[in-house]
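Design job #97: recover the sequence.
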């Protein structure tokens, strides 16, 4: 540093340091250059100045003393070179001692530590206690421990008398790992494993009511505690056996509602991206974690042992290369184990793992259950989601569907009853259009295509209908602001036999043959099919389209692309998951419910059994009357008539003496029909029930009401 005053002025300008501290800064920097004792701050503004100056030397924003270095042998420090080194490599603060000192040590963490002979440690302790406060490092002897062998305990007590340093022959935990005698390590591990086992059991009790939150706490928090220990302590497979026992006997049965067998436990231990749950077996993964950790950190460990003052770029590059090599070996081992395990599974389970391993199909598992983003599942939804993931039969479902077919997952995801496939399709369409409206203009849903007027299309499968529509239109998505892009959504059932062989390419090709030529030749625009599976996967063209959308959103929101793309996959994944749960649960009816359609009619022939629930909560019989029909109106009819016709909760009881057959007739409006509250009430002064006041506030589409209704039922 050739001109201290200029550098000092820059520091003062950058840090807005009080002018009274300028002499202290100059004296401090001159002492650093000359290798002299650094001045101690005497005034309050000097202490604040030292704090700000220290933080200026932290280019990565770490807390003060994150990396604390002492150079006792260097006296010819070039501050210009040191500042350059600080900006490019790991060390952030360089502290020099007096010339001629024999001890030297580099600290690479917040808490100082040293190893050596007792005499050297005493010198080190005195120098640290004397020089540290000048740089904001204050030694706390009451929290410091000296670990020695039993033969040297008396000598250590004599040498360190009066220092308030605490001395032990057993050991102490250091950075989360045990350091000391074998007996201390054994006791330390037993205490930690016992504590973690109790945590797992407590988490299992919580999983009875909140399985999604409990699972997330397990993979994102609790498991990290013993994962760190397995990276620092060798051969812990036998000590961690109680953890695996608690996971298998307590936690997993609460998550999947049954005790897992050996095959399912191995499946749950797979990474999430391979179709597992990421609940690893701590006994089997401990040794792999230790080998991976020692391999990756070997350059840093060597630098610390050799007391290098700077971690230059070669060490960092070596560490990155070792990390990539270790990750490659880890992936190969995981792939080999997965292949061996996959070959032992049944065909149905192989299909389930294949679907679960698709990109985006597991986003609902790896994300945090944040209610504000709609990423949280209630206990029934989480269990149903696991059943869909692994092809299990969901609990407490009717054996047959209302259409008469077997009510398995394959049929439930495709059955048109309840318009669930339509709701699923429209939810993805509306979500995509809403996001596109952030970055594109002229965004619309279900845009009509121009009719053909003499144009000829080369493909026979091309759609030439006059009223043809697509799902989304957005200008400025691919090309210029005036170039339209049309999108069409298709969501298929991957469990259907017709979708077992390359379904994404099959459906994308079908959509392109239907609309691409017409859009290109008539609309002079682009066409992109959006093809999803109900399990959460998406086709190649769909992936490209949503990557483009994520890029545009990242530019608009000034957020990293990877974060936006991850969030977008989660939104799409949860939308498909909610709709799939609605398909397998929505068609089931309870014993007592209000009708959600328009006007249902119940025909009763003398046996009776129909009951309705009054406003005060009592059930009353509806006796049969000759030549009459008892009609139960629905929620929509109550809103439409402004409460003149009341929607009641009803149920049907079975008579004891004879069989009873019920035939339900539903009269529903079209899904696109707009209901105006009170339109059919005339001059009636009646009002709707409290639970329908929100719906009765303004006109609404029947489809929008149905989607909100079932999304509400999924949350509760």
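Job complete. Output follows.
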């Amino acid at each position: 540093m050739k001109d201290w005053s200029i550098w000092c002025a820059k520091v003062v300008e950058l840090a807005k340091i009080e002018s009274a501290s300028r002499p202290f800064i100059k004296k401090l920097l001159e002492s650093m250059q000359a290798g002299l004792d650094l001045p101690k701050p005497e005034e309050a503004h000097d202490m604040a100045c030292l704090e700000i100056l220290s933080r200026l030397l932290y280019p990565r924003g770490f807390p003060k003393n994150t990396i604390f270095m002492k150079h006792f042998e260097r006296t010819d420090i070039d501050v210009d070179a040191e500042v350059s080194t600080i900006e490019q490599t790991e060390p952030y603060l360089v502290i020099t001692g007096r010339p001629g000192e024999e001890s030297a040590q580099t600290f690479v963490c917040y808490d100082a530590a040293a190893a050596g002979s007792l005499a050297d440690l005493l010198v080190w302790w005195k120098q640290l206690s004397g020089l540290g406060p000048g740089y904001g490092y204050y030694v706390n002897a009451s929290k410091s421990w000296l670990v020695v062998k039993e033969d040297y305990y008396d000598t250590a007590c004599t040498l360190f008398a009066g220092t308030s340093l605490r001395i032990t022959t057993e050991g102490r935990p250091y950075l989360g790992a045990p350091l000391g005698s074998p007996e201390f390590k054994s006791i330390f591990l037993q205490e930690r494993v016992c504590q973690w086992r109790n945590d797992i059991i407590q988490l299992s009790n919580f999983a009875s009511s909140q399985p999604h939150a409990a699972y997330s706490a397990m993979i994102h928090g609790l498991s990290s505690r013993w994962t760190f220990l397995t990276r620092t302590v060798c051969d812990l497979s036998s000590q961690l056996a109680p953890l695996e026992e608690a996971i298998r006997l307590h936690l997993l049965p609460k998550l999947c509602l049954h005790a897992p067998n050996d095959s399912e436990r191995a499946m749950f231990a797979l990474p999430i991206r391979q179709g597992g749950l990421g609940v690893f077996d701590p006994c089997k993964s401990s040794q792999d974690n230790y080998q991976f950790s020692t391999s990756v950190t070997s350059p840093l460990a060597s630098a610390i042992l050799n007391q290098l003052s700077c971690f230059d770029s070669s060490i960092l590059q070596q560490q990155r290369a070792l990390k990539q090599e270790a990750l490659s070996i880890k992936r190969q081992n995981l792939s080999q184990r997965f292949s061996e395990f996959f070959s032992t599974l049944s065909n149905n389970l192989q299909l389930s793992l294949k679907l679960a391993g698709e990109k985006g199909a597991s986003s609902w598992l790896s994300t945090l259950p944040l209610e504000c983003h709609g990423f949280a599942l209630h206990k029934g939804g989480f269990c149903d989601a696991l059943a869909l993931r692994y092809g299990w039969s969901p609990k407490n479902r009717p054996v047959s569907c209302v259409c008469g077919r077997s009510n398995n997952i394959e049929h439930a995801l495709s059955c048109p009853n309840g318009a669930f496939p339509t709701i699923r399709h429209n939810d993805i369409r509306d979500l995509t259009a809403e996001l596109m409206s952030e970055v594109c203009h002229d965004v619309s849903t279900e845009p009509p295509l121009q009719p053909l007027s003499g144009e000829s299309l080369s493909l026979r499968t091309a759609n030439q209908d006059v009223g043809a529509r697509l799902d989304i239109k957005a200008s400025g998505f691919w090309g210029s602001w005036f170039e339209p892009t049309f999108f069409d959504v298709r969501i298929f059932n991957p469990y259907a036999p017709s979708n077992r062989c390359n379904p994404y390419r099959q459906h994308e090709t079908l959509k392109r043959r239907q609309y691409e030529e017409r859009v290109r030749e008539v609309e002079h625009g682009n066409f992109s099919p959006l093809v999803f599976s109900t399990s959460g996967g998406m086709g190649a063209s769909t992936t490209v389209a949503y990557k483009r959308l994520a890029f545009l959103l990242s530019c608009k929101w000034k957020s990293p692309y990877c974060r936006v793309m991850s969030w977008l996959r989660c939104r799409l994944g949860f939308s498909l998951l909610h709709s799939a749960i609605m398909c397998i649960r929505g068609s089931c009816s309870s014993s007592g419910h209000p009708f959600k359609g328009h006007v249902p009619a119940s025909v009763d022939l003398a046996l009776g059994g129909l009951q309705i629930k009054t406003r005060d909560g009592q059930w009353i019989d509806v006796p049969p009357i000759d030549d009459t029909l008892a009609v139960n109106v629905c929620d929509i009819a109550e809103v439409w008539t402004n409460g003149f016709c009341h929607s009641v909760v009803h149920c049907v009881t079975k008579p004891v003496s004879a069989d009873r057959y019920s035939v339900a007739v539903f009269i529903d409006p079209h899904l696109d029909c707009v209901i105006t509250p009170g339109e059919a009430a005339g001059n009636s002064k009646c009002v709707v029930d409290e639970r329908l006041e929100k719906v009765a506030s303004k006109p609404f589409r029947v489809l929008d009401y149905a989607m909100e209704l079932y999304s509400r039922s999924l949350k509760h």
